[in-house]
Request: fold
Amino acid sequence: MNHDAGQTKNSFVIAVSSMGVQLNPRLRIPFVQTNIPAEALSFHSKPTYWLLKQMAFDPTRNLLRVEVLDYNTDLIDTFLNQVPKKEIQSLHFAYLDWEPLQEQVFGFKKLALKKNPIIRGFSEPETETQTGFPGTFPENHLETQEQSSEDKEGHRIALRFSKKLEALCFGLGSVSFKKHIPQLRKSLAFEIQNPHLLPEFDYIKPWFAKALKTKNVEIDILIRVSLDNQILSQTATSETLDRIDGALIETVKFQRSLGFTKKTLLTPPDKSLFSAEDFFDKNQEEASGGNVFGQNPEDLMNDLLNAKDVRNKRNIQYLAGLQSPSLPLKFTQHPDFGFLFFIEGQSQHHFAWELLDSHATYLWSFEKETSSIPQQYARIEAILSKLRIMKREPYKRAFNEGLIDSDLVFFALHHSHKNSALVDSFPRWKHALMEKLV
Reply:
């Protein structure tokens, strides 16, 4: 295994639940491929995490012999990220301590555990003594109470069905839903564990459907019902939901950020400059979606630059390096998505507007003593609002003719010839830019 901090060289983490043993969120080993006496133990559907020590590996059977170091470890991040160096098909435990193990099961078969050599420290539960009313109970009362769950079990209900992703509820580390069970003539609530999920993701399920390439989720449920029609246990699993891991969530984040830059707003915004929070709130159709990934402006910029082949990526990255650390990066969107950088020179404040995949940098400069920075931001926002109406080429002509914003310094610095084998415009653009940043 590849390990995280806090582990020894030969240790790793597994998740144990009613569905078996998992080596990571995507790699599961059924109980039948271990020597855990699952037929005598009823584990909860919610997993617990065990820290194991590797003892020996049999390559002929892909069998790993292990010993449990901790039956309730908090090294969950290790479990999420570990990857076996070799294929592991079976796990063989040296022994299992009953004292910590019994806290993780809701039922067991006494006789089977007494005979199983892997269980260490098992003792029969004490029989409750009845006092004051001798002879009240029939002679076989205690025997009836100690019958195994298998003896009481009437039948199992196994269902496989498809459910719309929109109909599921994302929570903290789980997905929940209700399903009507015809055999029981009622609906039951189910929960599927997934440590990657957050409640905020419930608002952006369409983006998860896009990343999963399906709007439907395949689900398997298993219900154990006693002879007197009482539900003994119920579990739900989904291979579709198991595909939601850290990598897929990153895909959702990229697709969502990039999608918003391409989106045409039906109603033009009443402002021209946006923060990262404004950007997501303005684009979110469903209330309370917003910035669910907590992306700061730099995160958003880097996501956009890495998500596609951006013509002016070098220019944007260079301007980002000049951005004043005391002020946040701002964005524009309508009619075109872009970045507004604030650069502090020796005698002037500079505002550089760079559109995504554009051919030029627009630079406005203010003398420092003429107005405050908030006033300068307000002036730039007013200019960008005019640009939305006038468009860029008419604005440049009007400025050059002294018809608009004549009290400011303005330059359009071009950077074409992207990927040209003959011309690299970046050095010339950089030189022209630095000449202006006084």
Remarks:
- The CA atoms of residues 41 and 108 lie 4 Å apart.
- The chain has three domains: 11-120, 152-244, 257-436.
- The longest strand covers residues 153-164.
- DSSP finds 14 helices and 21 strands in the chain.
